[in-house]
């Protein structure tokens, strides 16, 4: 927390993936760590995610995918943020992301990828170390 404002995180499920247990666990871990959390719900398009992230004034978007569409959906969110003139919202990803895809995701602007088995405290600490609240 800087200047009284807590880190605001959006947890989002892009695409048709209907499995959100992991996303809900992450959202709860963020909440328990003292972050403000916005959960966008299932079946969100990249456009809907970006629009909501801007409206909610979040500092970070955490994308979750278990269905394999991450190769398109995650970079599309970053692209839409740039097209909207927003370059200070950090985007991270998680879920079933093959190791071979992680460098591609990072090149596309995804700051970090958390795969299954990553300890929750490690994910929370990464956010504390890399995300600062934007000016209100």
Biggest sheet architecture? 5 strands, parallel
Straight-line distance between termini:
12 Å
Please state the average pLDDT score: 93
Shape-level CATH architecture: 3-Layer(aba) Sandwich
CATH-wise, what's the superfamily? Cobalamin-binding domain
Roughly what fraction of the amino acids lie in strands?
Answer: 15-25%
Helical content (DSSP H or I, runs of 4+): 25-40%
Low-confidence stretches: none
Overall outline: globular
The spatial strand order of the largest sheet comes to 2-1-3-4-5
Query: What is the domain total for the residues?
Result: 1
The CATH class assignment is Alpha Beta
CATH topology: Rossmann fold
Series of secondary-structure elements, N-terminal to C-terminal = EHEHEHEHEH
Offer a quick outline of the entry.
This protein has 136 residues and is of the alpha/beta class. Helix content is 40%, strand content 17%. The protein has one domain (8-130): Rossmann fold, CATH 3.40.50.280.
State the main characteristics.
alpha/beta; five-stranded parallel β-sheet; single chain
Characterise this structure.
This protein is an alpha/beta fold and 136 residues long. The chain has a single domain (8-130), classed as Cobalamin-binding domain (Rossmann fold). The chain is built from five helices and five strands; from the N terminus they run E-H-E-H-E-H-E-H-E-H. The chain has a five-stranded parallel beta sheet, with helices on both faces. Strand 4 (90-95), helix 4 (102-107) and strand 5 form a beta-alpha-beta unit. It is globular.
